[in-house]
Amino acid sequence: MSAADGAALELVGVSKRFGAAPALRAIDLTFRAGETTALLGASGSGKSTLLRIALGLLTPDAGHVRVGGELLDAHSAPLLRRRMGYVIQDGGLFPHLDARDNVTLMARHLGWDPARVAARLRELAELARFREELLERHPVQLSGGERQRVALMRALALDPEVLLLDEPLGALDPLVRAELQTDLRDAFRRLGKTVLLVTHDLAEAGFFAHRIVLLQEGAVLQQGSIQDLLERPADPYVVRFVRAQRAAFGEAGA
């Protein structure tokens, strides 16, 4: 599928090994413009490796990645990364910078006019529901949820086409996590970005995603809606995976 067909990001035949251990096995995935996809699987299934390869932080041993139809390689990666935003679990904020400078770092590095930077910051703060008076605080002075909102603002600062999130809510307490889930989903729908969300949590995947991709040992085991996984499992492992998370759906019994 080409970019003209609506593909914002493509992985074609992507494989990766770390020593003797295969991390990804001939992955073929297309992520359509405006679609939210959840990458789901147990620890070690290849979710984070796939995300890092998509961003150009890791080089595949075989296969290739295209962003908006353009090949991602060592030459193109610096420019193509500006078309992608990245959020990790702890936010990855620079501790010596306050929230304002964390969010605007790349815009200032690229020489944006200060008025444009300020206007973009106001837009992002409104989108992320982040109070203006908190912009002067450093990461250590912010709560976990506030840090993740800053990380989201920073990822969106250059208005990227694709947003990659690696378990962005995994370290938050349940109440903060539920609130941020709602705010993030509203933001995704409002912006219409292509979103790849890594999670261990089936309920969270179903809450956010148009499509779920379940990985096992570096391979795509099943992809589709949450109803597909629940009602039409493609493999006995899918059944076991769903049953292991049944508590997230309020189900009882074995």
- Spatial strand arrangement across the major sheet: 6-7-8-3-9-10
Radius of gyration using CA atoms only: 18 Å
For this structure, the CATH topology is Rossmann fold
First and last CA, distance:
42 Å
The level-1 CATH class:
Alpha Beta
**Count of the domains:** 1
| Quaternary form | single chain
Strand content: 25-35%
CATH architectural name = 3-Layer(aba) Sandwich
Percentage of helical residues? Answer: 25-40%
Question: What string, H for helix and E for strand, traces the elements in order?
Answer: EEEHEEHEHHHEHEHEEHH
| Number of strand segments | 10
Please describe what this structure looks like.
The chain has 254 residues and is of the alpha/beta class. The chain has a single domain, classed as P-loop containing nucleotide triphosphate hydrolases (Rossmann fold, 3-Layer(aba) Sandwich). The chain has helices spanning 47-55, 77-80, 99-109, 114-128, 144-156, 174-191, 202-208, 226-231, 236-244, and strands at residues 7-18, 21-32, 36-40, 62-67, 70-72, 84-87, 162-166, 194-199, 211-216, 219-224. It has a six-stranded mixed beta sheet, sandwiched between helices. Strand 4 (62-67) and strand 5 form a beta hairpin. Helix 3 (99-109) runs parallel beside helix 5. The radius of gyration is 18 Å and the shape is globular. It starts with 6 loop residues before the first strand and ends in a 10-residue tail after the last helix. The mean pLDDT is 90.
Summarize the structure.
By secondary structure, the protein is an alpha/beta fold. Helix content is 36%, strand content 26%.
List the helices and strands and how they pair.
Layout: E1 7-18, E2 21-32, E3 36-40, H1 47-55, E4 62-67, E5 70-72, H2 77-80, E6 84-87, H3 99-109, H4 114-128, H5 144-156, E7 162-166, H6 174-191, E8 194-199, H7 202-208, E9 211-216, E10 219-224, H8 226-231, H9 236-244
Parallel strand pairs: 3-8, 3-9, 6-7, 7-8
Antiparallel strand pairs: 1-2, 1-4, 4-5, 9-10
Helix pairs in contact: 3-5, 4-5
